[in-house]
Amino acid sequence: MDTSLLASHCIELLRKHNRVSLGDMGSFMAEETPATLTRDSHVLMPPGRRISFKETETWNDQLLEKAIGSKDELNELLSEISKKLSKEKSVTLEGFGKLRRTKEGDVFFVMDKNVPVNPNGFGLVPLSLSPLPIPSKVICELSTPPSQTVDVPVKKQDVAPPPLKKDRKWPWVLLTLFIFLLLVILMIYIFRDALQPLLEKMLYTPEERLLL
Question: Which of 74, 75, 141, 195 is the most buried (most CB within 10 A)?
Answer without folding.
Answer: 74
